[in-house]
Design goal:
Length: 366
């Protein structure tokens, strides 16, 4: 059976600042999808990560389908109205366009989609991150799909012996999609050269070179490119097929142990370690730290199993402690150096205006 997985995510309102959506707006979105999507969707799952609500659904309409995207847009609008009635912070924050225009991409919400012929058993992992940007997935997926230190299957499995193809998008270029395809293993140095700059070059998708089948889809929306100013971090989602011709689930998860530094954190203007958290986790310290959650499913004829929380294991408790220490350490550096993003990436206009005013006060010494 050919099935499409779509995940559509947005921040439409939160309690106490950027902490968590209310139960009321989560239920509002869920009930809307359940009612309005009953003749369109095969199955769906609603979850949240930090202050973002995600709609994961299965259907047979293919990617970028107007009806699916309109369904999610309308659900987010319904949730926004509920958020406004509750006086939640940032109601409708990620809905950056006044009206739906056929596709939710470019309108604010994050979107990742995969279309494929189901295998006899079809496991996948849905990742959602908060307080960071799409480049947060660059290092983990580079390691999972190209480095045998993290993916033993590259050495041991004949189903992966040709490696993987990475599609990279330049998210700074806004006139049209600007992409490049690079292959692992022969292009890994070129891959590394691009992926080190997660604010400009971002993995959009990954394909098996043995079969040509797509393994990964990542949302690559940069909100400040749409709004022209800071409205919140991009908070990317990702869909990853696992096992068989793709890395095992454990090989996908292994690099998240690093707690690598990513852009985001408070006001989207700092660097902080990415913390793997349990499903439906909230945001706390310094509007962070940046977090990622993972829900593993199997899908059969479009129907989902219940989710398995990939970071709900005693091992990850120790990782979270390590990441907490790492976050506290870099925050002790305050505004100085690498603790804050470079001027070209600062997303709050106040400091830009301040620098322009200060520039006029500089004098040339004789």
């Amino acid at each position: 059976m050919k099935v499409t997985l779509s995940v559509l995510k947005a921040d439409i309102g939160s309690i106490g600042g950027h902490i968590t959506p209310s139960k009321a707006i989560i239920n509002k979105v869920k009930n809307f999808i359940q009612t309005e999507g009953k003749n369109t969707l095969i199955d769906f799952y609603i979850g949240y990560t930090g202050d973002d609500i995600a709609i994961l659904c299965s259907h047979e309409r293919g990617t970028s389908d107007e009806k699916i995207h309109k369904l999610a847009w309308d659900a987010f609008l319904e949730g926004t109205e509920k958020a406004k009635s509750e006086g939640l912070y940032g109601a409708g924050q990620d809905l950056l366009k006044d009206a739906f225009s056929g596709n939710i991409k470019g309108a604010g919400p994050a979107v990742a989609e995969l279309e494929f012929e189901e295998r006899p058993n079809e496991p996948f992992v849905f990742f959602a991150a908060d307080k960071t940007d799409p480049g947060a997935y660059n290092l983990p997926f580079y390691l999972s799909f190209s480095d045998p230190m993290y993916n033993a299957g590259l050495m041991l499995s004949p189903k992966m012996n040709k490696g993987f193809s990475f599609r990279i998008i330049d998210v700074d270029y806004t006139e049209k999609d600007k992409i490049i395809d690079l292959n692992s293993p022969e292009d890994i140095y070129d891959l590394a050269a691009l992926l080190r700059d997660g604010e400009k070059y971002v993995i959009e998708s990954i394909f098996s070179r043995n079969t040509g089948n797509q393994a990964v889809s990542i949302s690559t929306t940069r909100l400040h490119n749409i709004a022209g100013t800071y409205t919140g971090k991009d908070d990317p989602v990702a869909l990853v097929r696992v096992q068989g011709e793709f890395p095992a689930t454990g090989e996908i998860l292994a690099p998240f142990e690093i707690g690598h530094l990513v852009a985001g954190f408070m006001r989207g203007s700092h660097n902080g370690p990415l913390m793997p958290c349990k499903l439906n986790s909230t945001i706390s310290f310094f509007d962070g730290p940046p977090i990622v959650t993972g829900a593993a499913f199997c899908v059969k004829e479009g129907k989902f199993t219940e989710p398995a929380d990939v970071f709900d294991h005693p091992f990850w408790d120790n990782v979270r402690r390590k990441v907490s220490e790492k976050a506290a350490e870099i925050r002790r550096q305050g505004f100085s150096g690498a603790a804050m993003l470079g001027y070209n990436e600062l997303e709050y206009g106040g400091i830009v205006d301040k620098l322009e005013k200060l520039e006029k006060k500089f004098k040339y010494r004789d």
